[in-house]
């Protein structure tokens, strides 16, 4: 047996089975009975699907045999009891996996900074590693996208539960499980954007503050030469809560400022804690007074919520004085502690994480038009009356030349005021937290160079002639990705914009959206389009003397750019700029990857090592012409198959009627609306990627993670050209990673759950199309990889998925049963709205446990 799998079975599977039995001993009414019946229900579910029963038949069979008073009311009560019980089983499993992480995974092994150093020494490439690490960096950007189904108090319990499990403290575990039993999983109201920010700040102060500084300290003391200092923030943090206005009307400039203040005050509290620890050690007469003074000033700053009582320059200056005294007079005693705190001030400044502002390009266009119309009305005839009537070239010329001071108070229009106020908020944050506190403006739905120049003009409208802001276009759809080269080529040819870039260090950040790209073009096409766009953009940026950085908008599951993400960065050839890796991390992925300091440090090191290894050890070459042609053909065939399926007249109705997409808005997990616009009917273009991907996951069909891949592979097999695909798989880590992530999506599919749909008169055809593609994809991916089962190369991941799927199966069954009952009652024209409402509530409640069990499904 695989050693890591053996450790998983010993420290995760076995412990789960032991501690799971504690639920039945908790002092709650009915919990013992529920605990006895749930394993029976789980077995009946599995056996029932093997016999071809549908979810309602399974539920009814169970109740007929095991429910004493078999009424619909008692059935509903039992279903809710099962939901609550399973939700807490998932929490227990998460906590056990987190607590056992360092026992299952080698936290000093492959993919870590320690292993990177050892490998460089063995291969005599340590000088190259030192040179690379002085320039290479990653930026992890935390977003408030609504994929976190655990409320804050439950996340806190998971943390404490993990600590107790590590200590094998059964009494404490039982107490925490009791607390869990009394803690609600469902928010009665939606969180505000500020609430979302506060929830994520917890990870900054408890995980990232420690793990990032530990990595930095290790690099400086163990990788660089003795006299060398690291002048490169190898890990940076970005922050979207409070700044992401795209589609979220509740994010205002006041919220942005409030979040910035919270970030600064939290960081100062962390600095204060470190100074208090140092104060206990640096009791030397000439040093103690400086530490005491710092202690007092930090404390005063905390009381004033970080407002203008202490500057970063003063803080760093005092720490340098202490450092000099320790070296000069005290034999460098406790120098490591002071150096570590100095490093933290380099890493986090007084801002902790950089807030990004984001808004849709269409909002900017409308705002510019309204501002110019206002200026014209005020007698400023140099401004055109109707911006929309100008040609593309006229717009470009106008937008780069105008510079004016406009106040938000000049307008009654809330949209215009919101855009302008957010820019003035950026200026204020830069004054209070430093330039890095808020220095990027991201443009969603960026389609051309004018969209970028509109933001450039808006910044200069706010009394900011030379804005200290990086303007970041976000290319999301397949069409936008195809035009990305033309957009940037046009911008680089604009002398005014190039002057702006020169002031920004000749650096340009470009964001690429995996989620909407996959929703638009399918899994393979989206990933290949982004890869090719990066190649083209790297080339044109280099030609213009611009250092480009790619910022990847990734979600949790493979369908949204997730999965084994670090392997993507290890697979980039020399044609793609990769000195600076940036990506979003959101919701579930934050808690699952960065929920503890040990896991957080490990995952950060995986990202760092993947990018650095690619350069230091030259592990990945560029695609050959033959492999490139093969991949392009596969992507195009899969795109045609996905597009045909997406355009099927029943595609959207199937997702809306048979799935859970319309229930996401009822979960109260995020401040942002689940779809754009106010239409009562589901419009594909308005549907956000998270509920789109998440709904397929709830159906256990995972369409965005594989659809079209099987058709593409089958076409090559029919041509007798399957060996070309095998060659591609053997030659390209990029393609191999895509394949393995897609296999993860297939492994998390379970079509027996929805097999009843194939007989549905309206949607049977759609179900069969999906199922046939699943069968074809699975068969040919196994043939391509040579595996006998899905995820054969990831035994621990496979074992974890299997345990999670087993825990969630009763919950999935309950959800499908409830969906069927809703449709049945509505079809019969039932007027009992209360009964329909109850079953809808069951569907909504089941989303939580199902999503948490999958851990990266949305």
UniProtKB/TrEMBL annotation:
Q: Name one GO biological process term.
A: tricarboxylic acid cycle
| Domain of life the protein comes from | Eukaryota
Annotated Pfam families: PEPcase
Coiled coil residues, start to end = none
Q: Which GO terms describe its cellular component?
A: cytosol
Task: State any single GO MF term.
Answer: phosphoenolpyruvate carboxylase activity
Q: Which InterPro entries match?
A: PEP_COase (IPR021135), Pyrv/PenolPyrv_kinase-like_dom (IPR015813)
Q: List the protein's name.
A: Phosphoenolpyruvate carboxylase
Organism, scientific name:
Elysia marginata
């Amino acid at each position: 047996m695989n050693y890591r799998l053996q450790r998983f079975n010993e420290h995760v599977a076995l412990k789960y089975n032991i501690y799971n039995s504690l639920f039945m001993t908790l002092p709650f009414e009915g919990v013992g009975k529920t605990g006895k019946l749930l394993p029976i229900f789980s077995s009946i579910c599995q056996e029932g699907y093997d016999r071809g029963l549908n979810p309602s038949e399974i539920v009814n069979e169970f109740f007929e045999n095991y429910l004493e008073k078999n009424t619909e009311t008692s059935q509903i009560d039992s279903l809710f009891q099962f939901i609550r019980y399973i939700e807490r089983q998932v929490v227990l499993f998460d906590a056990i996996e987190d607590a056992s992480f360092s026992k299952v995974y080698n936290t000093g092994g492959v993919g870590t900074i320690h292993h990177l150093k050892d490998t460089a020494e063995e291969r005599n490439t340590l000088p190259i590693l030192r040179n690379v690490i002085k320039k290479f960096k990653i930026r992890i950007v935390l977003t408030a996208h609504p994929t976190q189904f655990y409320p804050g108090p439950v996340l806190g319990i998971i943390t404490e539960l993990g600590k107790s499990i590590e200590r094998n403290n059964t009494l404490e575990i039982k107490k925490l499980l009791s607390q869990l039993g009394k803690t609600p999983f469902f928010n009665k109201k939606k969180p505000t954007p500020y609430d979302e920010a506060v929830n994520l700040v917890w990870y900054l102060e408890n995980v990232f503050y420690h793990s990032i500084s530990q990595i930095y300290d290790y690099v400086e003391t163990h990788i660089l030469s003795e006299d060398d200092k690291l002048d490169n923030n190898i890990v940076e943090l970005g922050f979207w809560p409070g700044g992401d206005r795209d589609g979220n009307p509740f994010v205002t400039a006041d919220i942005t400022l409030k979040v910035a203040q919270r970030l600064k005050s939290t960081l100062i509290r962390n600095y204060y804690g470190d100074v208090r620890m140092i104060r206990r050690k640096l009791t030397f007469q000439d040093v103690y007074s400086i530490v005491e003074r710092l202690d007092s000033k930090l404390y005063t700053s905390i009381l004033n919520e970080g407002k203008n009582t202490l500057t970063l320059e003063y803080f760093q200056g005092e720490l340098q004085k202490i450092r000099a005294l320790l070296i000069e007079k005290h034999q460098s005693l406790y120098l490591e502690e002071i150096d570590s705190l100095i490093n933290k001030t380099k890493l986090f400044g007084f801002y902790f994480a950089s807030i990004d502002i984001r808004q849709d390009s269409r909002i900017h266009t409308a705002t510019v038009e309204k501002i110019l119309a206002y200026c014209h009305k005020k007698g400023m005839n140099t401004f055109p009356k109707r911006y929309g009537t100008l040609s593309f070239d006229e717009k470009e010329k106008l937008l780069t030349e105008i510079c004016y001071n406009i106040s938000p108070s000049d307008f009654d229009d809330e949209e215009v005021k919101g855009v302008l106020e957010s820019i003035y908020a950026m200026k204020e944050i830069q004054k209070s937290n430093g330039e890095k506190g808020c220095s990027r403006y991201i443009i969603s739905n960026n389609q051309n160079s004018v969209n970028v120049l509109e933001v450039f003009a808006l910044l200069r409208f706010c009394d900011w002639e030379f804005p200290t802001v990086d303007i970041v276009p976000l290319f999301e759809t397949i069409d936008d990705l195809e035009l990305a080269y033309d957009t940037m080529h046009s911008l680089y040819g604009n002398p005014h914009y190039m002057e702006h870039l020169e002031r920004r260090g000749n650096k340009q950040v470009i964001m690429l959206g995996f989620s909407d790209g996959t929703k638009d073009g399918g899994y393979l096409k989206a990933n290949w389009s982004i890869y090719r766009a990066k190649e083209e953009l790297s080339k044109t940026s280099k030609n213009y003397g611009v250092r480009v950085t790619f910022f990847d908008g990734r979600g949790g599951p493979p369908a949204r750019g997730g999965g084994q993400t670090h392997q993507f960065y290890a697979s980039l050839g020399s044609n793609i700029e990769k000195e600076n890796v940036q990506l979003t991390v959101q919701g579930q992925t934050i808690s699952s990857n960065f929920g503890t300091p040990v896991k957080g440090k490990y995952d950060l090191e995986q990202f760092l090592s993947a990018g650095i290894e690619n350069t230091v050890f030259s592990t990945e070459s560029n695609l050959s012409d033959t492999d490139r042609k093969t991949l392009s053909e596969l992507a195009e065939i899969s795109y045609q198959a996905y597009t045909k399926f997406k355009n099927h007249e029943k595609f959207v109705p199937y997702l809306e009627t048979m799935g859970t997409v319309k229930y996401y808005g009822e979960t109260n997990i995020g401040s942002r609306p689940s779809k754009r616009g106010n239409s009562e009917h589901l419009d594909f273009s308005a549907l956000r990627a998270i509920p789109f991907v998440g709904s397929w996951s709830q159906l256990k069909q995972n369409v965005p993670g594989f659809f079209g891949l099987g058709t593409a592979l089958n076409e090559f097999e029919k041509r007798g050209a399957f060996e070309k695909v095998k060659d591609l798989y053997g030659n390209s880590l990029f393609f191999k990673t895509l394949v393995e992530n897609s296999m993860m999506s297939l492994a998390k599919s379970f079509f027996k759950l929805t097999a009843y749909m194939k007989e549905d008169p309206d949607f049977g055809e759609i179900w069969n199309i999906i199922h046939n593609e699943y069968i074809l994809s699975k068969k040919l991916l196994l043939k391509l990889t040579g595996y006998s089962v899905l995820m054969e190369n990831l035994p621990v991941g496979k074992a974890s998925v299997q345990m999670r799927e087993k825990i969630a199966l009763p919950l999935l069954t309950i959800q499908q049963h409830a969906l069927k009952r809703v449709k049945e009652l509505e079809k019969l024209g039932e007027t009992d709205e209360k009964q329909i409402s109850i079953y809808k509530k069951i569907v909504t409640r089941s989303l939580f446990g199902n999503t948490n069990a999958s851990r990266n499904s949305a």
